Amino acid sequence: MGEQEAYTHSRKTAPFRADQVGSLLRTDVIKTARLKQAAGEITPDHLREIENDEIIRIVEKQKETGIQVVTDGEFRRAWWHFDFLEGLDGVEAFSANSGIQFKGVTTKARGIKVSSKLDFTSHSMLKDYAFLDSIKGSHTAKMTIPSPNMLHFRGQIDPAVYSDDDEFFHDLAQAYKKAIKAFYDAGCRYLQLDDTAWAVFFSEAGEEQIRAKGYTPETLRERFARSINEAVADKPSDMVITMHICRGNFKSSWTAEGSYDGASETIFDGLDLDGLFLEYDDNRSGSFDALRYVKRPNLQLVLGLVTSKFGELEDPDTIKRRIDEASKFVNLDQLCLSPQCGFASTEEGNLLTEDQQWEKLKHVVRIAEDVWK
């Protein structure tokens, strides 16, 4: 094996052959401390000290699995998206009447609204990333934030503030440009945008929702793609930005189903990203046929073939066969492997144990080492 082939197979830059989406199961220590802080029994500073200690521990646990990329597990968040979006200028939280409906379960109630012009001046998560960066060692630290599309998808937009969609999406993209630069200046070189909004294109029910809001699928696809591309347009050349395209993840349940076909051409040939994390852990995701739209040889696809929803380990040979199937559409050199989602998109977490979580990551590493020898 030549030097170039060895480098290509091992991948020294993100996304890695064995990667992860980001969130990890909150430990009992974290859950207890957050409840105590909410009740006024400990100070925010004391909570942060506890979070620091637990993040140090779980970063070491990640390193022990053999994976090259580490995250803070989103341990300082209650939600994968609201916590970040609420920190944007012009966005505020409110008590919603109901939670988000998943298959058989509903989240606690939470809402966000755009009440003034959007901007980015500072954010508490810059400090969160800096702490992760300080303990990453020789590993790569990944920061995860919601895609700009999530503010449009989950937020209530005051028409008195934004009566025009073009102005809203323009300001949103500019705010994200500033956010990306701020994370870069904090040391981040691997940023992931998490996005459940694309799943609305994957089924007839989703397209009905689009039309009910006054859009056509074609128009909304174009707006979503443009908001992302404008947001990342000025990213530094040594910063990797990927996107995780999700169908929902809460207590091992989900919200959407359907293949990527409803938006595949836009997703695979219309987004100026370095990589895509794709859910392919069960039949809800459809076949690999949609990958035929991948035209760029430098786009990395991270196949989420290992489920994060349950603890049982998949048959390695089955996963390898599925990677082989995907390689019929995209060169094996452009493929990587990960769990299909995080383990705890919200602080409640999925229905598996912490030990099972670590075994899942080890499983990903072992299979990737066998495939990309």
From TrEMBL:
Keywords: Methyltransferase, Transferase
GO molecular function: 5-methyltetrahydropteroyltriglutamate-homocysteine S-methyltransferase activity
Statement: the UniProt record of this protein carries the keyword Transferase: yes
Domain called Cobalamin-independent methionine synthase MetE C-terminal/archaeal: residue spans: 20-348
Enzyme class: transferase
NCBIfam families, per the entry: PRK06520.1 (NF005085)
PANTHER family in the cross-refs: METHIONINE SYNTHASE
Stated name of the protein: 5-methyltetrahydropteroyltriglutamate--homocysteine methyltransferase
Gene source species: Alkalicoccobacillus murimartini
